[in-house]
Amino acid sequence: MRNAEARARRFLRCYPSAWRERYGEEFVCLLADDLADRPHDRSRDLDVIRSGIRARLSCCGIADGPIKNSTGLTTTILAALLIIVLGATSIWTQLADASLHHTPDTYTARLAFTVLTATGAFVAAAAVGAGFVVLRGAITAVRAGRGRQLRVPAGLLLVAVGVLGAGPIAVRGMWPGHLQARTGEGLVAHIAQLTWAWSDSISTYWIHPTRLLARPHTELAWMVASPLAFLLLILAARRILAGIDPAGLAPRWARVGRAAHTTIVTTCLLACTTWVLASQHDSNITLRAGTLDLALIAAMTVAAAVIRAATRRLATPTT
Amino acid sequence: MANRASDPSPPKTADSDSAGDAVTGFGRYAGPATLVLASLADGAKHGYALTKDIESFAGVHLAPGTLYEVLSRLEAGGLIEALPASDRRKPYQLTAVGAAALQRHLDQQRRVATIGLRRLRTSWQTA
Fold first, then answer.
1. What sign does the CA torsion over A124, A127, A132, A133 have?
2. What is the pLDDT of residue A156?
3. Which residue in B54, B72, B80 has the most chain A C-beta atoms within 10 A of its own C-beta, making it the best mutation to test that interface?
4. In chain B, which residues have their Cβ closer than 8 Å to the Cβ of A26?
5. How large is the average pLDDT for residues A292-306?
6. What number of C-beta contacts closer than 8 Å exist between A and B?
7. What's the confidence (pLDDT) of residue A285?
8. Could you give the CA distance from residue A26 to residue B64 in angstroms, rounded to a whole number?
9. Residue B48 is part of a domain; what is its CATH number?
10. Which among A50, A55, A319 has the least Cβ separation from residue B76?
11. Stated pTM of the model
12. Which domain holds residue B37?
């Protein structure tokens, strides 16, 4: 029986902490009894694992379910936002690199470049604004004596920002735009260099190991380090947001932010999709979208749907 | 050949329009939810007692994962409620809302069963 209890506790780890807090002990009792009755029932084991995964997805807002976990939902939203931003960044970088070489000669490429540049500028400005709201919340939390719980995530955030700031400088010499740029070191070239570095890990090189290993070691290291830095950024942001209440600080701006997000993401997706689909017949190889771009559009669409579901879930009362 | 003219379906009532909404609203969990509610209809039970009871009257073994998915949804929907735990096991009991939902759902199921059985008797001469 003790063995069954230990096995039941191992199975319990499939479930998220919010679920375990509510149902953990009684579930372990039931599962231990069931394990004692049917020690080798594989369908029961699979049922528990599947149910645990569903509870985790539910806590993150990806599947429906009665248990809600605000931290999990925030993480999901941040991760999905990052997918959209990196996807759009990757596509914008290709268009920017090509436009530095020569003016895009197709209407869809010019449209996608213009729309992504405009929305990118808006998102950058909005991100600075959101940063100020979060900073205000952090100052309020410190004044209220909750500064200690923000110390570690703030440190992690600085490390992530430091890596994402220093990395592009280290790999700037590998930017393919250097080979193409006709406009020298203009603003677009500087930004394209930065966005290329941030989205460098989004590459088909991962499925071509020979070509991947032929890259310079510095770039290889960066291709591994940059996703980790983004992961660290999300984890730190999640913990900081859990320590303060940015939506509570600016409820009106939270509503405006949701509406702006929907508009921007829809516009970006439409512009990217139009370019990707139209460019399949483009004679200019530098502006022809590939399978990776189609995959990016698909990932961004899924991420947008996930954000929509998770924000709705976040707004519903906790059960 | 079924004689549909001689087998009119019962008229719908206002009650039957909303019949079983609370239970059928559980989608793929509607079946297990009905079994759990039916088991709790004669008194509060904890998880293990529920699985044993359902096994005895329906011949179905509800796996623990599925059972707790159903329990959490029924509890969130206000159809059942948890009682204070005696040891580590927490018994659940039917609420008034749950009892009414189960009544409507079973009435609807009975209508379906009655019509199905009648049509079988008419068309297939089953007992």
1. positive
2. 92
3. B72
4. 46-47, 85, 88-90
5. 89
6. 68
7. 57
8. 11
9. 1.10.10.10
10. A319
11. 0.69
12. 19-124
